[in-house]
Amino acid sequence: ENLLEVRNLKKYFPIKGGLMRRTVAQVKALDGVSFSIKKGETLGLVGESGCGKTTTGRTVLRLIPPSGGEVLFEGQDVLKASSSRMRTLRRDMQIVFQDPYASLNPRIPVGQSIAEGLTIHNIGTPKERLDQVAQVLDRVGLNSGHMRRFPHEFSGGQRQRIGIARALVMQPKLIVCDEPVSALDVSIQAQVLNLLNDLQKDLGLTYLFIAHNLSVVEHISNRVGVMYLGRMVELASRDQLFRKPMHPYTKALMSAIPLPDPTIKRDRIILEGDVPSPVNPPSGCRFHPRCWLAQDICKHDDPIFEEKEPGHFVACHFAQG
Ligand code: ADP
Ligand code: MG
What we know:
4-stranded antiparallel sheet; 12 strands
């Protein structure tokens, strides 16, 4: 069954301007994003910087309020949860950041940072918390002797392990991994990805795994959603997506990654023109590749998300290749 279901999520950030700091425009960070994640599954979320991945993760965790839409966790609306339900949800849903310093205070020993959630939620005695911290440190490949050290005494990869331990100690059901390996050396990335993979299998975790790099999600995801300008443009099983990308934006992303093994062949990837950068979005219809050239002839406001083959969804107006 679905652990998480996101329906038509919208988030508009106001842009303030002028002397009165009035809202002069809005950034459509999320413009109707829908997906679900089954228990024990990893959904990879990819797209270039600025497409709305972090906003999706933060909204799911109710760290920021959305402008519209629904988030269901175990069938219940997260956005309408009572404060007592929210306390449970805060434990059940954890986040691992790109930058471990986002969750580690440089001035306090890492053991204390890891135990923070337990302390806040008043879980266990101080002794029990210490045991829990020792256990998760061991689980992420460090040891209890590291507890009293400070974040700067660790390497980047070790710091990320500590960030993972901090999430793990709460025994969550869902972890939002927001580019957890993007800041690490390539040689370390695989180690941290393997750790996350092992943890998921051993503990039955569910991941929303965010990355801007398709090759990262290829290794860890069961299904992959491709985001572009605040919308999901393609959503499919990993195999479907990598074997047969359909949306022009997905194709553009794929053409940018080298194949690790030259004996593996993908369907020929055809690009139709330039894919505009999310930083400079074109006006008008943003989804049909031809609209980027002749947007005045496009009448579509809302992209239709069509199921092109079982389980393979593509935003409307992609050119058949
Ligand atoms: P990603 O994680 O995919 O790089 P984000 O979700 O961080 O993208 O951002 C999506 C869009 O929303 C971007 O255009 C970003 O500039 C904008 N945005 C994000 N957070 C804020 C904020 N707090 N205020 C205004 N705009 C924001
Ligand atoms: Mg981000």
